[in-house]
Design goal:
Blueprint: H1 7-17, H2 22-25, H3 33-49, E1 57-61, H4 67-74, E2 78-82, E3 94-95, E4 105-111, H5 120-129, E5 131-142, H6 147-150, H7 153-156, H8 168-177, E6 180-184, E7 193-200, H9 211-231, H10 234-245
Parallel strand pairs: 1-2, 1-4, 2-3, 4-5
Antiparallel strand pairs: 5-7, 6-7
C-alpha cells in the first residue's frame, strides 16, 4: 500500500499530474502558508502537552520534499519523514521505510493523507502505536462540514484520489475507534479543510457519526437541483433525473 509502487503513492503522483493544490501535494520546495500553519500548531501544542521536554521528535507521514520538516528542524525538533514518492529527494531529515511498531515519536503529523487511503482507521492505529506516551497526532484533510458554503464536493471526495471523506464528527468517530481522544479542531487556512489534534486515550463516540455529513449532502443536492431548475426547461430536467435513476 505505502511502497513506491503502491496505491497511495500512485494516487499522490496522480494528484501532482492533475494539478491539485500545491499544499496538498506536499512537494513545494518552499513552505506554503499551510505548512507554516502546521508548524505553528506543532509548536503551540507541543508547548501545551509536552512542556519542558526538549528536543522533541516529530514524524511527518506524507512529508513530500520536507518543507514542514524544514520549518520544524529550524525550530529545534528532531525530524523524521516517511514518503515513498520523495524519500530519495529529502536529505536534511531521517527518512523511514515504514511506520515504527513501537513508541518512537513525540508528535506525528499527517497532512492530507487520510483521504487517499481505503482503510484510514488501520493507518490511524499504526500512527498511534508509533507515538510515545503523552504525544499527539496533528492531522488534516478536506472537510465536508462547510460543503454548502465552499461547494467543493469533488475536492472532498472523488472516485480516483480522495476516496474517503470527513466531517469533524466522522473523524472523531474514526480516531476514537483507533484509540485517540480528540483534543481540538484548530482553525484551518480554508473552509474546505479540517485540522485535528488528538492524543492517545479512550474517548466518547459520537451518537451518529454520519449525521452532519447527511445534512450537508442533502442541502448541497437541494441547492444544486434548484440551480438546475433555473437553467433547464422542465422536460430536460425530468430526463436528467430519469437518467440519474438508471
Amino acid at each position: 500500500m505505502y511502497s513506491a509502487t503502491g496505491q497511495w503513492n500512485q494516487e499522490r503522483n496522480a494528484d501532482t499530474i492533475n494539478g491539485a493544490d500545491d499544499d496538498d501535494n506536499h512537494d513545494a520546495s518552499e513552505a506554503s502558508p499551510v505548512e507554516q500553519r502546521y508548524a505553528q500548531l506543532v509548536q503551540e501544542w507541543a508547548a501545551k502537552l509536552l512542556p519542558g521536554q526538549q528536543p522533541l521528535s516529530v514524524l511527518d507521514f506524507g512529508c513530500g520534499r520536507g518543507p514542514l520538516l524544514d520549518l520544524l528542524k529550524d525550530a529545534g525538533f528532531l525530524t523524521y519523514g516517511l514518503d515513498p514518492a520523495t524519500r530519495h529527494l529529502v536529505h536534511k531529515h531521517k527518512m523511514l521505510e515504514a511506520i515504527p511498531a513501537e513508541p518512537t515519536f513525540d508528535i506525528v503529523v499527517s497532512k492530507h493523507v487520510f483521504e487517499h487511503v481505503p482503510d484510514p482507521m488501520s493507518l490511524m492505529v499504526q500512527l498511534r502505536q508509533s507515538l510515545k506516551p503523552g504525544g499527539f497526532l496533528l492531522c488534516g484533510m478536506p472537510s465536508m462540514d462547510e460543503l454548502t458554503t465552499h461547494k467543493k464536493l469533488r475536492y472532498c471526495i472523488n472516485w480516483s484520489h480522495h476516496i474517503t471523506a470527513y466531517t469533524r464528527q466522522s473523524l472523531t468517530a474514526l480516531l476514537t475507534h483507533a484509540g485517540f481522544v480528540v483534543e481540538a479542531f484548530p482553525t484551518p487556512t480554508r473552509s474546505d479543510r479540517l485540522i485535528c489534534v488528538a492524543t492517545s486515550g479512550v474517548g466518547a463516540l459520537p451518537t451518529d457519526p454520519l449525521s452532519d455529513a447527511r445534512v450537508q449532502l442533502r442541502a448541497f443536492r437541494k441547492a444544486r437541483d434548484g440551480r438546475l431548475r433555473q437553467l433547464f426547461p422542465k422536460r430536460i430536467l425530468a430526463a436528467l433525473q430519469n437518467a440519474r435513476r438508471i
